[in-house]
């Protein structure tokens, strides 16, 4: 048993029982070991959850980084979509990710920020847009993963929400705001804040 095996089994357990029911006791039983053996690899459950969150983000964390010739607007949208797809791959993926610190991904985040700035997006606006898009995405996926399906107790005039369409609409609004902020900076016009 190694750290990677523990994390992989913990993620499989997450998919089976959900975040509320994941416990070191259940994980130890699944692995066929005594619970204290897990503490050799993870001192606390919080450490285990952080490692699970990092491993669950692997599909997004290994997505290609932007290249200088990429259109920053298209890249911004695809980066958020990739993040959403990755969160949706795991049961309670958004809850697992919420509050985690992407320490293993800092170099990639810096490169993404440098790309936006090199594309003419003011640095502070790029930071806030990436933060807003990330939190918006986590919130959308939290709602989507918590949705129990159609509710028959709602009035018939309450519209059914298409999660993907709602995500795309909100993402377009974030991008639209960022485009308006970036346009004056790219043209050399100073914008009042």
Q: Could you walk me through the main structural features you see in this protein, from its secondary elements to its overall organization?
A:
Helix 1 (3-17) crosses helix 2 and helix 8 (106-118) crosses helix 9 (123-146). The protein has helices spanning 3-17, 24-31, 35-38, 45-56, 58-61, 72-88, 93-97, 106-118, 123-146, 163-187. It has 193 residues and is mainly alpha-helical. The longest helix has 25 residues, at 163-187. It is 66% helix and 0% strand.
Instruction: Enumerate the spans where pLDDT stays under 50 for 5 or more consecutive residues.
Output: 187-193
Distance between the termini: 55 Å
Rg is 20 Å
Helix content: 55-70%
Shape: flat
Short description:
The protein is mainly alpha-helical. It is built from ten helices and no strands.
Question: Which short descriptors sum up this protein?
Answer:
193 residues, mainly alpha
Task: Note the topology.
Layout: H1 3-17, H2 24-31, H3 35-38, H4 45-56, H5 58-61, H6 72-88, H7 93-97, H8 106-118, H9 123-146, H10 163-187
Helix pairs in contact: 1-2, 1-4, 6-9, 6-10, 8-9, 9-10
Keywords: DNA-binding, Repressor, Transcription, Transcription regulation
DNA-binding region: 23-42
Organism: Streptomyces atriruber
